[in-house]
């Protein structure tokens, strides 16, 4: 997912209330009621102090790539790690896509 860094929290008056370049700062601003922020579903859904304002934002969907040096991709332990990462993405897909809020 592209980083939402640099997004602005909007105050109730419609102006910019806070500028935060990092997700931790955005989470803190949202918890404090400073406005709206864009966060990955797995972060926002896991925090009871944050409430979703919209559904998924399709324009933030992105492919994930696992890049491995060609000299290492056939090494058994590297293949094992690559398989584990792929499996974890599949297992966690509903949470990553914001579809499984009960799992948090």
Structure, briefly:
Helix content is 32%, strand content 7%.
Helix content: 25-40%
Task: Give the overall form.
Answer: elongated
* Main sheet characteristics: 2 strands, antiparallel
- Total count of helical runs of at least 4 residues: 4
Oligomer: single chain
Layout of helices and strands:
Blueprint: E1 8-10, E2 16-19, H1 23-31, H2 41-44, H3 76-91, H4 93-96
Antiparallel strand pairs: 1-2
Descriptive account of the structure:
The chain is mainly alpha-helical and 104 residues long. Helices cover 32% and strands 7% of the residues. The protein has helices at residues 23-31, 41-44, 76-91, 93-96, and strands spanning 8-10, 16-19. Strands 1-2 form a two-stranded antiparallel ribbon. Strand 1 (8-10) and strand 2 (16-19) form a beta hairpin. It is elongated and about 55 Å long. The two termini are 20 Å apart.
Give me some keywords for this one.
104 residues, mainly alpha, 7% strand, elongated, disordered N terminus
């Amino acid at each position: 997912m592209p980083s939402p860094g640099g997004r602005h929290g909007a105050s109730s008056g419609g102006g910019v209330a806070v500028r935060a370049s990092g997700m931790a700062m955005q989470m803190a601003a949202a918890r404090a009621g400073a406005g709206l922020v864009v966060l990955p579903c797995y972060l926002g859904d896991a925090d009871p102090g944050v409430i979703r304002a919209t559904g998924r934002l399709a324009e933030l969907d992105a492919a994930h790539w696992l890049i491995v040096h060609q000299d290492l991709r056939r090494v058994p332990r590297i293949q094992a790690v690559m398989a584990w990462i792929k499996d974890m993405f599949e297992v966690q897909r509903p949470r990553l896509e914001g579809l499984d809020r009960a799992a948090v």
